[in-house]
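A further point concerns the way the authors explain their paired sequence and structure data. Nothing conveys this as quickly as seeing an actual entry. An entry of this sort, consisting of the sequence and the corresponding C-alpha cells, reads as follows:
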Amino acid sequence: MAANLTRLLEHNIRSSSAATAQRGVRLFSSQQQQQDAIDDEEFRVLNLRTIKQQARRREIKKEAVQPPRTSRMAVDQDWTAVWSGPRSFHPASVPLPLRQGYTERGAAPPSKYANAELMKIPNFLHLTPPAIRQQCEAIKKFCTPWPKGLETEAKWKRHFPIEVISTDYCQSLPTIRHPDARRVTIRLKLSDLNFDAHAKDKFLRLVGDRYNPETDVLTFMTDRCPTRKQNYDYALYLLTACYHESFVTEPWEDTKAEADMEVYLFERNQAKQSAEAILNWNATTEEKITPSASYAQSVEQLINEGENEYNIAKYKEEVLKMLKIAV
C-alpha cells in the first residue's frame, strides 16, 4: 500500500514539473517574439557600403569554327544555288581571292575576310552569265515572237516614229508615289511629219524652243497632271493640236506684204520677176523661161542666212549656170 502511494506521488511530481517547464518555455518564446517586434519597429540601419558578392563565373563553351564553304565547293558547283539573288558580300561563299581597300604604299590590299569595303558596295554576283541564261530560259515561255518587218532600227523607227520616255523610282518612303514619276517626254523627228511651207513655218513658231534644228528632233515634256497617263494624253494632245493648227490659214495672213514676211521667199519677191525678165529677153517664143529651183534656193539661202563664203560661192555657181556662162 505504501509502495503504491509512493509511485503515485512521484508521478504527480513529474507531471507538475513537466508542465512548469513547458510554461516556462512558452513564456520565454513569447518574450522573445515581443522583443523581436520591438526591434522591428525601430529604424533600420542604412548600409551605404554594399558588399559585392562574388558571382560565380559562367563557363561558355565555344563551338568549333567550321571551315569556309568555299573549301567544300565542287569545281562544277551551281553558282545560282549559292548566290541566287542580290545580297551583301560574304567571303565564305565566294571562291575568289578578292582584295579591296586602301593600304600603305607597297603593301597588298586587305583580303576578303572582314573587309568592310567589299560588304558596303553593291555587287552583281547574282547576274553572272549562267544566272542570266537560266532566268531567260525561265521567262521565255511568256514571250512572243518578234514581229516581222521590224528587224532593224530604221524599220521600227519608220513604223513607230514617236518615242515615249518615262521614269520609275524605287524609294524607301511611306508612299510609293514619286513626284517625278508622273513626268512624260515624247520625241519625234520633224521630218516624219508632212508639212507644206506655210504649215512648217507656223508649226515651228508654235512649238518654239521645243524643236532642235541641229538634230531635227521635236520634244514635248509634260508634268502638270497628277498621273503619268494624264500627262501622256496631254503631250499627245499638244502635238495633235499644234499639227492641225499649223495648216489653218487666217484671213489676215493673205494680206501680208513683202515687208511683213518673216523670211525671204523667192517666189513672192521682185528677184523672181527680174530673173525671168533676164531669161526671156529677146525671146522669140511665147513660152516663158523660169529660173531653176536651185537658183531660187541659193538666193533664199544667201539672204536668210547672210553672206558667207559658201553662200556666195553657191550663188555665183547658180548665176553662171542660169546665164550659161562657161568659166
